[in-house]
Amino acid sequence: MEKTNNTTQWSTIIQSKTGWFDISMSEVWKYRDLVMLFVRRDFVSVYKQTILGPLWFLIQPLFSTLVFTIIFGKVAKIPTDGVPHALFYLSGIVCWNYFSSCLVKTSDTFVSNAGLFGKVYFPRLTVSIGVVITNMISFLIQFLLFMGVLFYYYLAGAAIQPNLWVLAIPLLLLEMAALGLGTGILISSLTTKYRDLAYLATFGVQLWMYGTPIVYPLSQIPQQWQWLYYLNPVASIVESFRFAFLGVGGVTMSHILSSIGIIILILVIGVIVFSRIEKNFMDTV
């Protein structure tokens, strides 16, 4: 704000918008420093008062892999396309953890930040973007764990065949981020009016995991029903990830393109609904 000749000239003017798509991405970019502050806040606060701290990033996927290996590998004896059980399950868990964390933690954006939103203006989408970036750090840590286990089994002579599809990993990461963000902000927008949807979302994420080939290979699904699985964008992502590093899994370019199309649709719908809700959110709390 500047004063010249007893008049006030504002450097920034905040005006009400009524368009169907009111989120300005240039404005979000202008607040990129705030996004990084949210990233630091979220990353530090999660394990700030824990004994093991960041080690939980490694303990959680390792423990889940152990449980899946015992229950689904040893007891249920579900095949894993010739891949060692631990490596098969860990590859799915690493992908699923990133997507589900983005979804769950962005799904309460409005409710958990109501006090902050009521005090100062900033693009509300920056909070959700900060969550996605924070979880990306967690993904990279767990990805390094996966690479270590992969290297161990490769030296041990396991039947795994990494290939050039590993170059597509940045695209898969972007897909998971966009899908988690789009689904999360859509749920967050709806829960401002219907709070019980938050409980349904938690239950829905659990069902979604079992509808994704995390603990079983897609090859175990009858051929005539596999097209239903490819309507689930996460299924294509997990299968592509496994094929890139393990050489197993069935994924085609048509499956990848349909997955990308569904993710873009969900993200666009989520952003539109989010932009409509954020203008009136404080009137509903």
Please give the structural blueprint.
Blueprint: E1 2-4, E2 7-9, H1 25-30, H2 32-46, H3 56-75, H4 85-106, H5 109-112, H6 114-117, H7 125-155, H8 169-191, H9 197-210, H10 226-229, H11 233-246, H12 253-278
Antiparallel strand pairs: 1-2
> Into which percent range does the helicity of residues fall?
55-70%
- What is the mean predicted local confidence, pLDDT? 83
Rounded to an integer in angstroms, the radius of gyration calculated over CA atoms is 21 Å
Number of domains: 1
The biggest sheet amounts to: 2 strands, antiparallel
- The side-by-side strand order for the widest beta sheet comes to 1-2
Beta strand count = 2
Q: Please give the alpha-carbon distance between the first and last residues.
A: 32 Å
Strand residue content: under 5%
Alpha-beta classification: mainly alpha
Q: Unreliable stretches, pLDDT < 50, 5 or more residues?
A: none
| Shape annotation | globular
Helix-strand pattern: EEHHHHHHHHHHHH
Number of helices: 12
Summarize the structure.
This protein is an all-alpha fold and 285 residues long. The protein contains 12 helices and 2 strands. 35% of the residues are buried.
